[in-house]
Design brief:
mainly alpha; 39% helix; Serine Threonine Protein Phosphatase 5, Tetratricopeptide repeat
Length: 486
């Protein structure tokens, strides 16, 4: 156990507030399928297209995407957090599942991935005119990143705004966007979206396997072939295509080994890229949101809006699990704390909440592969993956052998331990039980400081498991169908 850092360090960086505070509601939303403003003359060679990749990666960094609602902030919908009395209530309607179709946060989460798609399409739709035999590998490097980015963005939209994850579902998915023209596309079926994503990622894997240079030679800031395979493993896992999930997780695990117990803390201060497959790079001085978890715990202001739920804390071995000490800390009394615990996972090396958001890590690949093995009858391999991960997290860990429902439950629990605050928990619950239970009872763990308005459960029959298509989009696009209940 450890106590959170001194509030003095927080005050020393108060100047950062001026460039980070913004209102996220009542957004003036643009059409996510907007007409391109980039003239055909903007690109004169392949290097111009390589520069355009900066726009793709910057779009992933937005507050509506991995540095915000599609990342850490989605955890407020789950049993990993609860709202405190010190919260400013900006996210109260979201955390309590009271949202409606004109909620600005979901509008941002819809528009931001389509901005990635738009930025990628600016490359994909024009680069072929500049392909030559002499520069084929450079072409592959640029186009492969753009295609993989477009596929990842489409999948993130699918899991948020579609109700069904089945590989062959004919239920409404999301619009597929492959150009930069002003259009109002209808929703493709879930199967059609999966078909598109599979084809995109397979093409990206082929292209990125034959490039002119290493894409991630020094860091994990860009999409290379290993990232594309990690994306395929995740997509196939959601789709229930366990053979494809296993095959691609295998390839990632070979290339990116797990960090051990001594290395693991460095991953979260960005002192090491061990086991990181791809991370959104956040650096002091950037104009985008560089504080991934600031909507839950604001290290600069010294404010705890959402605390760690005791049910999550109690899943860890509190004396031997390296994650417990590095992920959590008690909120200090001089900042208003009354015993509650805060997420320190994104405290960062500077101690102010600047940290890289890890989109894919080797640990997730082990957990994907373990569940896929378990669900295809190979429980020995599932146990081996689970034990390997735990050995690299828990000092003195002794291997276990589980089977049946016990094995699947422990994989679920390990996903919750390992991937907390990485944007997985809500979607893990959505694809499995569709139940949230977060009892708020006075006592150990800080729940005594829970906001009186906290709702404690969401049932499997609720339509809120599928986010609303934004009202602005419904008005712009006459071909769009709203999700039921909104």
């Amino acid at each position: 156990m450890r106590t959170y850092i001194s509030s003095i360090k927080l005050l020393s960086v108060a100047f950062l507030l001026l460039c980070s505070i913004s209102c996220k509601k009542n957004l003036d939303l643009a059409n996510p399928y907007a007409l391109s403003l980039i003239p055909n003359t903007a690109f004169t060679n392949l290097d111009d297209f390589a520069a355009q990749l900066n726009g793709v990666y910057a779009a992933f960094q937005s507050t509506g995407y991995y540095n915000g609602f599609m990342g850490c902030t989605s955890e407020i919908l789950t049993d990993n957090t609860y709202e405190t009395r010190s919260s400013l209530a900006n996210y109260q309607t979201i955390a309590n599942w009271d949202y409606v179709s004109f909620e600005g946060y979901f509008s941002s989460a819809f528009v931001a991935p389509y901005n990635v798609v738009y930025q990628a399409n600016a490359i994909i739709t024009r680069i072929d005119a500049f392909k030559t035999a002499a520069e084929e590998k450079k072409y592959n490097r640029i186009l492969g990143q753009a295609i993989a980015a477009r596929a990842i963005a489409h999948f993130d939209l699918l899991k948020a705004f579609a109700d069904d994850f089945d590989r062959n579902s004919t239920k409404p998915g999301i619009p597929i966007k492959t150009d930069i023209k002003l259009e109002t596309p209808p929703r493709a079926s879930v199967k059609e979206v999966y078909d598109f994503i599979y084809a995109e990622l397979n093409k990206a894997i082929t292209l990125l396997s034959n490039t002119d240079q290493f894409i991630n030679a020094a860091n994990r800031a860009a999409i290379d072939v290993t990232v594309a395979r990690a994306a395929m493993a995740r997509v196939a896992y959601y789709a229930g295509d366990y053979t494809t999930a296993i095959d691609n997780a295998n390839e990632v695990i070979i290339e990116v080994p797990l960090a051990d117990i001594s290395e693991y803390p460095l991953v979260w201060t960005d002192g090491s890229t061990n086991e990181v497959v791809w991370a959104i790079q956040n650096n002091l001085g950037e104009t985008a949101n560089i504080f991934p978890s600031s909507d839950l715990v604001n290290f600069r202001l010294g404010r705890l809006d959402f605390a760690v739920h005791p049910s999550l804390l109690n899943l860890y071995d509190k004396t031997s699990d390296v994650r417990y000490e590095n992920f959590f800390g008690q909120w200090p009394s001089n900042l208003g704390g009354t015993g509650e615990w805060a997420f320190l996972k994104y405290l960062g090396g500077r101690g102010v909440g600047i940290a890289n958001f890890k989109v894919f890590r080797a640990a997730e690949m082990y957990l994907i592969r373990a569940e896929a093995y378990a669900k295809t009858g190979d429980e020995a391999s599932a146990n081996q993956d689970l034990n390997t991960l735990k050995t690299n997290r828990i000092d003195g860990y002794t291997d276990q052998t589980l089977s049946g429902a016990d094995l699947l439950t422990e994989i679920e629990n390990e996903r919750r331990r390992e991937l907390a605050l990485e944007g997985h928990r809500w979607f893990d619950l959505k694809r499995t039980t569709r139940v949230v239970n977060r009892p708020i009872l006075p006592g150990a763990g800080g729940t005594i400081n829970a906001n009186a308005n906290v709702k404690q459960s969401l049932g499997s029959n609720s339509f809120k498991w599928t986010w609303p298509i934004p009202e602005a989009e419904m008005r712009i696009n006459s071909n769009m169908a709203q999700n039921p209940g909104y």
